[in-house]
Amino acid sequence: MRLCLFSLTAALALAGCSNPEATGRYLIDPATPPVRVANNLGTAELRDVSLPEYAASGEIAWQTADGAVRSNTKTLWADKPERGFTLTLARAISDMSGATVIAEPWPLAEPPRRRVEVRVEKALAQMDGTYRLSGRYYVAQDSAGGANHARSFDIAVPIPQATPGGGGRKPPAPPAAIAAAQNAAIAQLAAQIATLGGPGAVIRTSTPRLDPLFTIEPLPPLEPLPEISLLPAG
């Protein structure tokens, strides 16, 4: 009897764990910023966005009062975070600026004029009730021989319904509120990249000048040799 009861309890617990309805999946879907800006990028390939491990794992992460970063297998992103972040960021930049920004790999026959790379250092719902998105982005022009624009970003978005400093090991706000804050942060990042703006210092490089010693130039034409008369020996 006890064995049967134990088996029934285990089966119910397993059914609860495997119940797909118990898992919440939230979209990475930033709204297009309402402002329109000039097209500063033309055609650009956006490399896969680099995310911290906790942000790329698929679970929605948050910071608790003890400073730890925690997550829950019941609250997930609806897509792979790096893929969703990259695709929606490219779309937001394009929509607000008119530029043709496409996530890699580049699908068109004509190559892009520029390449954009985003390296995220922090993407986290913090214990102070804000969502923090920080890192650095790079814009490279193929003809320049390397990155010709680099700038940092540090975006903080208040999380709706957040309880700063509370909640113990629970998230500071409902997962849907954290997702909404992240989407707002991505939209702000799209605006900064589209305008080549942001709070950090700008690093610019130009086409490198080659040392004349290593510059390949055509050799000057050969001068004609003077005519030489060959007299018969006598």
TrEMBL record:
<feature type="domain" description="ABC-type transport auxiliary lipoprotein component">
    <location>
        <begin position="26"/>
        <end position="194"/>
    </location>
</feature>
<feature type="signal peptide">
    <location>
        <begin position="1"/>
        <end position="22"/>
    </location>
</feature>
<protein>
    <recommendedName>
        <fullName>ABC-type transport auxiliary lipoprotein component domain-containing protein</fullName>
    </recommendedName>
</protein>
<dbReference type="Pfam" id="PF03886">
    <property type="entry name" value="ABC_trans_aux"/>
</dbReference>
<dbReference type="InterPro" id="IPR005586">
    <property type="entry name" value="ABC_trans_aux"/>
</dbReference>
<keyword id="KW-0732">Signal</keyword>
